[in-house]
Design goal:
Layout (H helix, E strand, L loop, with lengths): L1 H25 L23 H9 L7 E9 L6 H14 L13 E2 L5 E9 L6 H12 L7 E5 H13 L2 H21 L6 H23 L7 H30 L5 H28 L7 H21 L2 H9 L21 H12 L1 H15 L8 E2 L3 H4 L5 H12 L8 E6 L3 H9 L4 E6 L17 E2 L2 E8 L6 H15 L7 E3 L1 H35 L3 H27 L6 E2 L2 H31 L1 H28 L7 H33 L8 H14 L1
Parallel strand pairs: 5-11
Antiparallel strand pairs: 1-3, 1-4, 2-3, 6-9, 6-10, 7-9, 8-9
Length: 705
Amino acid sequence: MSGRGGKATLIAVAVVLAWLVIGGVSGPYAGRLSEVATNDNAAFLPTDAEATRAQDLAGEFVDRQTIPALVVYERPSGITDADRQRVGADAARFAQIPGVVTPLPPPIPSEDGQALQVVVPVDDAEGEEIGTVVEQLRDITGGDRDGLTVDVSGPAGLLADLIEVFSAIDGPLLLVTLVVVLVILLIVYRSPVLWIFPLLAAGMSYALASVFVYLLADADVVKLNGQAQGILTVLVFGAGTDYALLLIARYREELHRHDRPWDAMKTAWKGAAPAIIASGGTVIVSLLCLLLSSLNSNRALGPVAAIGIAATLLVMLTFLPALLVLGGRWAFWPRRPRADQADPRAEHGIWSRVAGFVARHARPIWLTTAVVLALLTLGLTQLGATTLGQSDLFTQRTDSVDGQEVISRHYPAGTGSPATIFTTEQTARQVAQVAKDVPGVADVRPLPAGPQTGPPEANAAPKVVDGRVQLEATLADPPDSDGAERTIRELRVAVHQVPGADAVVGGFTAINVDTSDAAKRDQNVIIPVVLVVIAVILALLLRALLAPLLLIATVLLSFAATLGLCALLFRHVFDFPGVDSSFPLFAFVFLVALGIDYNIFLMSRVREESVKRGTRAGVLAGLAVTGGVITSAGIVLAATFSALAVLPLVVLVELGTAVAIGVLIDTIIVRSLLVPALAYDIGPKIWWPGRLSRANGEREARGAG
């Protein structure tokens, strides 16, 4: 006895020490992910998008690709001579900043005389350092003074504000996530010791995932952006804690049946590991379906998040069991489980009563919950997926947002961020005239052949490269608005119809248009693939066809209800203007994959119990013993995704809110009531066409007889 126990302890110690070495090597990379992240929207476009082709053509017309920062000065009573002197002095200092492409064009006065605008081209090769350049611009302007307001806006200003937001991921987001998980674990376990094990394992998972993501992003195998980085953080800690809760709950059960922790862990691992692996595998495969996306940003999120789940599975099935074996029963202090052969259901009094309630009212329960969820789906009419404008992108005011509003008041709103049109030299005049006639286009001018010392002249000789000319179309609406996007679509239709023009339209707004179109295409392709993949995994796990189809149907109903409820909250409570075009797909992948998780946890245990007890008794036993742990896991995951709200970015707040609400609906309504009641009402046929369907049908028929 002692020999086997000593050998088991040595194995556990060796596993823990090996993981601590791995953690020591990989840990520093968790804080370095921002070094290899990029937030350039154009870099994420498909290569065949029109905006991508336009960007490639633009590179032939300039020595260096630039992204404009727009420094706008406003005095409502009218710009003074002193203001002009100040602007001139600032512009001279702007030109000295490393990364600024000179010479700068002269300041552009507004027609009403109340504003001056300086266009500062920033070298696109600066990458993430564009944020540093914009910060220096803001330092030079020094902010508002004597009634003159100053803001740095434009695409470079927006990018700088986004970089600042995502810089919070390595610190505040990670800290908030850790605190949330810690508090919930203390409440769930009511132990001053046990919380350490899952939190330490989740941290190890994050470190392991970080080193692989860092190396792949550094080698340019995947594109890591701030959004993917934030989701990686909450996903690893949320899913990792879920898997830990499931394993620990099963381990606690087995400690009642075995004298030695090693034997209890072996049995618990055999019982819980298949469900955990199936759950993690479902999430991984669902995430990898994002590789089918035409957007590089989506394709990046898929493998980044899948790496996080894979690392979490590996750690939770090796490192965590070893820690728990070393901890033994004392880890559960002060409620240490004794080897008393107690029925696991005895520790779950509340959930045993819930199971009894389901048994007495199965059909009314599943009908009522299904109707309630169906009613929530009516809120989908309020969803309104769109491309969020610059002023709608953040949950708080930023300098770039303020600057864009000033520009909109005094200039054609698209000034400084024009649409670019590339066409043949022979058709340039005709294309320019056609473009001017498009509603929403304020002006069209060619890129001049000579040095540019100011705005392009209408009749200037155009620069010709390989027989092509670049035209700049100033839009009447802000470049990130719905109006500007409509103009781009109409502009493309108009210039494409000019014979022999071979016209290509690009620019900031065109990037948004092509991104939105690609997102819609992705939804139509990826969502059906994810559903088929999940159905196959469930069929293999449960060895049935009817059960997987019903589980997918309940999760889809839960997903639609979640989006309906979120649409109402976003519009009428949070006062958000809409959701980003990428939101429905991301919400689907996370909600369906994670929602299926809890049904896997439940139904794999129900099947195990059904083999021993019969289907209806198995449903009640499975619900009773998994109810507490699955609900706790759902609360943990919901809380960790809620941590995304610390980032003042609407798209992440919306995604975090949707996942949190959806997970709670899944765990509290779908998994606790709808699925058990439906399975109980259907009975053994739930396992059709598997052998268990026939065996349990005969057993329950004999019992009834």
